[in-house]
Automatic annotation (TrEMBL):
CDD domains: FNR_iron_sulfur_binding_3. Pfam families: FAD_binding_6, NAD_binding_1. The keyword Hydrolase does not apply. Its cofactor is FAD. It comes from Salinactinospora qingdaonensis. The keyword Iron-sulfur applies. This is Ferredoxin reductase. Residues 3-104 form the FAD-binding FR-type domain. Keywords: 2Fe-2S, Iron, Iron-sulfur, Metal-binding. PANTHER family: NADH OXIDOREDUCTASE HCR (PTHR47354), PROTEIN RFBI (PTHR47354:SF5).
Length: 244
């Protein structure tokens, strides 16, 4: 059941950025999950003190293995340990999968638009990976807004290629752009969403994830462009301290 805690063991980890890494966890009896869902993770100290946080699942179901990409939060209680200290063999607990609204069904063939602000790319990457694993040709557009190249996740998988069998990725750097990027730094604009995204007449499902400011402005832009409100699904995290 999704509501009870399951023991989890860290099998592997890999650095995604200076402030983030992906944790690969073995969870015996994991029931499986949908791309876009999340889990609660709980740590217990030797003195019995516990702390828990919610993290998006970064990859589709793969047996008893799950992946979480965690961003270090300044002055955080849990994320600094997970990003910089936790090592193979360390134990924790997870509860889930959680969430039933912000998910992509792999049987879906209607077009999909994914709009990420910073670490909001994590649950959307699970959808991209699920599409790949299913050899799906569903039309996907990914618009990824982030401050600078050093904060970019999944560089090899999202790659430097603009498209692959119906998948196209657009990067909007807001503070510092790489030399190869002709677009000057700046926030993702409604015009760019219209140009690099999908038009409303294709009736795409739009998934928007990131800090509150990014999610609100992006959702407003999608509605203004003519996308149906029921087709715009949003998920936000943390206090907004400036949009990516």
């Amino acid at each position: 059941m999704a509501g009870h805690w399951r023991p989890a063991t860290l099998l592997d980890h890999r650095r995604e950025a200076a402030t983030a890494r992906t944790l690969v966890l073995h969870v015996a009896g994991w029931p499986g999950h949908q791309p876009g869902q999340h889990v609660d993770l709980r740590l217990t100290a030797e003195d019995g003190y516990t702390a828990q946080r919610s993290y998006s699942l970064a990859a589709p179901t793969s047996g008893d293995t799950i992946e979480l990409t965690v961003q270090r939060v300044p002055d955080g209680e849990v994320s600094p340990y997970l990003v910089d200290v936790a090592d193979i063999g360390d134990r924790s607990e997870v509860r889930g999968p959680l969430g039933g609204w912000f998910i992509w069904n792999t049987d879906q063939t209607t077009p999909v638009m994914l709009l990420a602000g910073g670490a909001g790319i994590v649950p959307l990457m699970a959808m991209v990976r699920a599409r790949r694993d299913q050899h799906s040709t569903t039309l996907f557009r990914v618009l990824y807004s982030l401050r600078c190249p050093q904060e970019r996740y999944y560089t090899d998988e999202l790659g430097h290629h603009p498209h692959d069998d119906g998948l196209e990725v657009f990067f909007a750097y807001t503070r510092h752009a790489p030399p190869s990027q002709p677009r000057p730094p700046g926030r993702l604009t409604p015009a760019e969403i219209a140009t690099h995204g999908l038009p409303p007449d294709l009736a795409p499902t739009c998934f928007v994830c990131g800090p509150t400011g990014f999610v609100e402005s992006t959702a407003d832009a999608l509605l203004a462009l003519g996308h149906h409100p029921r087709a715009v699904k949003t998920e936000r995290f943390g206090p907004s301290k400036g949009s990516p």
